[in-house]
Amino acid sequence: MTGTFGSVLAAFEPPSTKDFVWDCWGPALRVGGLEFCMNFIYFLVLLGFLAMLGFFYFALRKPRVVPGKLQSTAEIGIQFVRENIALQMIGPEGDRYMPLLATLFFAIFFWNIWEVAPWVNFSSNSRIAFPLVMAIVAWITYNVVGIRKHGFGGYAKHVLIPPGAPVWLYPLLVPIEFITQIIVRPITLSVRLWANFLAGHFLLAVFFLGTIAMLESGGILYAIAPLSFAIGVALVGFEIFVSVLQAFIFTILTASYIGGAIAEEH
Amino acid sequence: MFGLLAQTTGDVGTGLETIGRGLVIGLAAIGPGIGLGVLIGHAVEAMARQPEYAGQVRATMFIGIGLIEALALFGIAFSFII
Description:
The complex is a heterodimer. By secondary structure, chain A is mainly α. Helix content of chain A is 69%, strand content 5%. Chain A has one domain. Chain A contains 8 helices and 2 strands; from the N terminus they run αββααααααα. In chain A, a hairpin with a 2-residue loop joins strand 1 (24-31) and strand 2. The termini of chain A are far apart. Mean pLDDT of chain A is 87; it is low at 1-5. By secondary structure, chain B is mainly α. Chain B has a domain at 30-82: F1F0 ATP synthase subunit C (F1FO ATP Synthase, Up-down Bundle). Chain B has helices at residues 2-7, 12-49, 54-81. In chain B, helix 2 runs antiparallel to helix 3. The radius of gyration of chain B is 20 Å and the shape is rod-shaped.
């Protein structure tokens, strides 16, 4: 028995964080200590973005009153973002933020779905950089619209002091509100998206590589390989669900932050 | 205990680090697991009592799921940092 497990462990290389590091294609541009270059991840980002642009270009190129399949798919998607995210979270003013919210939703979805695309199986959102940039965009948006609406002092009061709190609690409340609303929000937004796809990649890699390792090992583990493969297939379905869910959660949280920033005082 | 550890071959520090990583993920999943159970259970109850507000309850539920889930995912992220 130990021999069987030993051979599996020899063939099975557990996935590690080095799966997420890709080498540069061609020369790199050095600015200070940073290195900018074209690599596989950036290629996926560009390809996902072009896929999104192409999808909406072909779907809405010649809009008809009675929509075709592609057009109605695009329209259902946009209607979903408008009715379930923008109008629900921000209210009637939500239409102003539709370009941002719809772009975030569909861009995140098209980048997420690389996780289950055959022969790719790597989401660009499993590197922290891309979720972080989107979270910074959301952070700047909700702070700027809040400051525009209430003025700087009014927005600071709106954010830092919960209505109805007694004055003697302010020294305790103001730092807590500042940390939760200004500092932690962009971090949780980006870490949620990033860690989901990091964990998703590990799950898929463990079950599919484990299947191969068990098949190659011979012996009793050969019988368990189909089970591992079945779990892997089920997890692919789960990852598709997670792709949609994370795009939805990122967008709806951005919308709720914007809605909270421009809300009237109670 | 320490005599036994000293006798083992290989790097004990690496082994303890691996145990720590596993513990971080497991411990980080406990609280959010309970939280998600309470949240989703109550959301289902609310939807069953007031089906006409199901859409609103579901949207709020997903926001809550997103907020709670981040805690467990912090555990995954930190397990790679340590």
